Structure formats: structure tokens, C-alpha cells
Amino acid sequence: MARRTATRAGAPEPVEPVEPVVTTAAALSAALAAAEVVVCCGSGGVGKTTTAAVLGLQLAGDGRRVVVVTIDPAKRLADALGLAGGLTNDPSRLDVDAPGELWAMMLDTAATFDGLVRTNAPSPEQAERILTNRFYRNIAGALSGTQEYMAAERLHALHDDPRFDVVIVDTPPTRNALDFLEAPGTLARFLDHPLFKLMMMPTRRGLKVLNVAAQPVLRTIGKVVGGDVLADAIAFFQAFDGMETGFRDRADAVMALLRSDATRYVLVAAPKRDTIDEARYFAARLDEAGLGVSALVVNRSTPTFGTPDPTVGRDAGDPVLEALWANHDELAAIAAAEHDQLAPLVDDVAPAPVCWVPMLPGDVHDVAGLHEIRRLLFGPDRPTG
Amino acid sequence: MPPKRLNPREFLSTTRLVVVAGKGGVGKTTVTAVLARAAADAGLRVLAVDLDGKPTLADLVGDVPHLSLTAPDALAEYLETHGLKRVAKRLAASGIIDVVSTAAPGIDDIVVLGKLKSLERSGDHDLIVVDGPAAGHAITFLLSARGLLDTVRGGPIRTQALEVLEMLGDPARCQVVLVTLPETTPVNELVETAYALEEQVGVQLGPVVVNGVDGSDESDGSDRGHGSGDLTIPDGTDPALAAAAAFRNARRAMHRREIERLSDALAIDQIHLPHVVTAGITRDDVARLAAGL
Lengths: 385, 293
What we know:
The complex is a heterodimer. Chain A has a domain at 22-179 and 261-305 and 315-375: P-loop containing nucleotide triphosphate hydrolases (Rossmann fold, 3-Layer(aba) Sandwich), CATH 3.40.50. Chain A is 47% helix and 14% strand. Chain A has 15 helices and ten strands. In chain A, the strands form two sheets. An eight-stranded mixed beta sheet of chain A has the order 3-4-2-5-1-8-9-10, sandwiched between helices. Mean pLDDT of chain A is 77; it is low at 1-22, 183-188 and 202-207. By secondary structure, chain B is of the alpha/beta class. Chain B has one domain (8-292): Rossmann fold. Chain B is built from twelve helices and eight strands. Chain B has helices at residues 8-12, 28-41, 56-61, 71-80, 85-93, 96-103, 107-122, 135-151, 156-168, 184-201, 239-265, 283-292, and strands at residues 17-22, 46-50, 66-68, 127-134, 174-180, 204-205, 208-213, 270-274. The longest helix of chain B has 27 residues, at 239-265. Classes of the chains: A alpha/beta, B alpha/beta.
């Protein structure tokens, strides 16, 4: 199956199918060399989880000890890797035929948050008061931004884990996925939550819970959601008192890792307008943060099949032959249109390598399928030994 | 008895609110636009609704009336119409939706559902088609009413939740349309979601839409000169033509297989939308797909 290279720098060149490109495969390997953290970003449904798993397979093949962290609640990675019991919040080692190791886990936002509370609480009693609070139980999994923050937190912990050389993570498919890259003030999202600010007031001795009755906004919230919900929230913030410094320090460390040379960002897109727009948004966010895109993976692109012999007539009055030509032309036209549509994104991420993964005739849902994509991305298997 | 292929026009006049749901990338927005367009072309007064504030759906439906309904807007409107107008502006401006939905998860969903319910009750529209949340969130979205009844024991939100539940339980008022592609993983996820919705939410499932079917067996107008069955590859065919045809045949075979599997797993009527040969679907594509229904 032929692959195409992408034109760089948006030069409007005619679309010519190119034979399998060694340079792209080599460039992708180079982009990931010495990476300690790989963050895969892109909108939902573009194959981020699959791409993360494929990169993991490849790096394990290079002899590295890899852990892949997925946020996908649909357990697709587990399916693809043949893990009948599904993935848990603790890494499981997978049985892959590789000199390195491949581990996988699914991020459990609430459990990670619990761990963070236990680590930072001055006493087990205080940790318990927080963990059993109903308000906390609600926000630990549901607060917007929590998932992104906990993903970054977990990533940092795995990076420090001596069992692993590389951590690969697929980010949530939201525009907030890269919020942790912003200024330190917004990093500890939890502490910068408006509710926290509304209820807490810094004093010389730390934080103090404000009087609810004195706050018209809180009174309003109470009217809408009910007084007992608010009482739970206040009890939570009282229990949280004194822990914010530890949270902030931790957040700073996480951000330093994500901004370091050890972390690589791989954009994942499909040749459809909405996913390209999202990928361009991520590229711009990374650029604003002074970070580059290490590689762009375009999944499910329409393959091209070379140029038919021009002496094969297309108007011979033979309906079978005409249908074959029509099919070939249709696929070629789609491939060209996709290429045009991707050009601005390719331009955005230059000089990062762009890897086209052709749409496969079958669905990718097992290890063999992952290996097939790996070979398409990185080239044929090298002889071992 | 295997599920039958459904006449979509029939379905569109059996209920007033259709929530379209499916995992990311299956073409949920396209399907929403096609259903809205088809109903409008059939003479119904239609409203197309998106919940994400993105312009995609508005672009695709063309002159069909459209509403962008986001949680912060819905909450602001809710507060205003419940005697809290003075603070509503300030609440919306300071990102307070986040605060309120944190304190009582599901409240952002319930105000959106509440707004949909009042649109449905208004009688201004024969059919409201909603580009719903992605499959995972669709369940929590539709479950929010039931969940809130447990946490909120009184007040206007509880009333709202009860009214929403009443609507969700009435097939003549509301149905959910699940969308999938004819591929293994999306089909598996659709089947899981379908069971979860029926068991946990108790909402009526409308037909399942299989989007992007290559080699659809109906005359859909998208055929570009080569038949929709398998391509014949005689011996000695030019290698490039043969490779392209083999790829196409393999893909069509997979689609047939997956549709068959879906039919076996789920006794729900199906609507098939043909694969559109383009990298970016347009308003014209939507109109053509709608006409093909």
C-alpha cells in the first residue's frame, strides 16, 4: 500500500502519490528519540488511543520500558490489546513480543485525586474527612478541568516511577486538554476554582471560610441547589484548609515536566474538517506556550494506489473496466481533497514530520491491527538479534 | 425477526424531540443536519439545536431554523425566569455555571434539558432535532434528571427534573437516535450505549443510524457511475486499478459484516446513510442525503 509524504510549508504543489517514505518513518523515530513523556492530542474519534498504543509498541520494540495511559472511558485500548479484564488505575504489563516492556493503564480521575489528598493531608484523619465528604465525592470525578489536571499529575508520578522509561498519554478530547500548559496561576485548577475563591479568604494564618450569609452569590447558589449541598461544600473547604501549598508545589513540578525537553507532543488528526480545526487549535496552543509539535499523525487517510497504465482504455465500452476506473478516480480525488484540506495544518506544525496512516480495509481492534499501523508509521520490521 | 430498514420520514413525525447521540467521529452532527433537513423538506416546522456552541451544525442545516443552546446560557435564562434576574448576569459572567454544577452535578445538564422541554412544550415546532453529547456523556446527560432527584430534595430544580423525566419517558414527546459507523468498535459501543439508555434512563430509542455506508443497497443518488455492489476484477487488470478495487471491495465487505452484526445484537430499526465521497461534508451534501432518505 502506497503512502504519501506531505508537502511542507504549505507550498501549493500538485498532489503526486509517492511511494513509501523512509524519511518520514525515520523522522518520526527521531522525533521520539530520548522522549520521556509523549502527549497525544486531538479531537475525539481520530484514533488518539490507537496512536498512543502504536507508539508504545514501537518504543517497546526499541527496548524501552513504556507505560501507556489512556483517558478513554470506552476501554478501547483494553479491547485492542486483548485485555479481557479491562484496564485499571494501576499499570498492567502486556504480553508483547518486544525487547522492551509495554504497560497500560486507564486513568481513574477520582482515585488519582484521592491519592493526592492522602499525600498532602497533614494527618490521616484530615484526609479521611475530605475523602468522605459528599461534595468532594462529587467534584473528584466531575469538576471540569479535574480530569486534565489529574492526567498531568499521574503522568508526573509515572515519569518518576523507576519501572518506566517512557510515559505515553492520550489527552481528553476537549479544548481544555492543554489547560495545564498555561501560567502557574491556572495550573492548580482546583484551587483556582471560583467556588473556592468565593468561600475562602486568605488570612495571616491561612485560609478561612467566609460567612455564607454575607455572600449574596452563595445565598443564590443555596437557593438553587439547596442548603445541604452548600453545607457539604463548606465542610469540605474547612477540611482542605492548609493543604493548598502542597497542591501548588506539586502543580508547579508537573508543569515543569510538561514544558521540559523530555516531553514531546504528537498531534493526531483525521482528514475531516472538524478534526483538522481542532488539531490547528492545539498546535496554536502549544505554540503560544513556546512548545513545538514533535509529529503530526493523520489517521484514516484515503490511500492511493499508483497511476494505472495510460494505455488501459477507460472508454472501451466495457462496463467492468469503466467501474474500475471510476473507483480508482474517485479514491484519488478524495485523497487529493484530503491532502488540500490538511495543508494548513501541515504548515502550522512544520518542520515536524507528518505521518499519513491510510484507512485500512478493516477496523483496528487487536494487537495484529496495531502492529500493522506500527509498520505503516515506522516502516517494515527490522531484523532482530 | 431481524430489525427492518425504516422509512425515516415516518419516524420523524412520530415524536417531537429527537436527541442524536454517538461517539466522537461517527458523524453525529451530519446525521442531525440530515434528519432536520429531511423533516423540513417534508413540510415540518423544524428546529435544529446544537449544545456545543460551534458553528458546524448551523452551517450544515442552511435555512432550517437553528439554536445554539449551551449550559451557561440555559442557566442564565433559568435564573432570570425564576426571580433571580439581578444575579443572573453576574453569575453567568463569572463562570459560575461551573460552581453550581460542581455543587450539584447534573444541574448544567438539567437546565439544558429543561430548556429543550420548554421548547418542546411551546408548540412552535413540529420537530426539534438535537445534536446531543458524545455517547459516554449522553447517558449522564439523560440520567441527570433522575440523579438530581436524589440530591436535590426541594425547590425549582426538583420540579424541573420531574418535568424532564416525564418528557423522557414519553415516546410521543422524546426519542433518542444513536449513530454509528459500520465498523467494529463503534458498533460495539453503540450496542452498549443502547442497553444502558434503555435500562438506566428508560427513554425510547428511535432508529439507529448507520452513517457512511459504502455500497449501500438503496439508490441514494450518490453513486458515481460504478455500481454499489462488489467491483469485478478480471485477470490481468492493471495493478493500480486492481488494488483500488480490492481496497473498495474489502471495505464494503466489512460494512456489510458490521451491519449484520448490529442487526443481530440490537432489535432496533436502522436507517443507512451512504458514504459521502468528500473530505469535508457540506450543506449540499446534507441536502442530497436528506433527499435520499
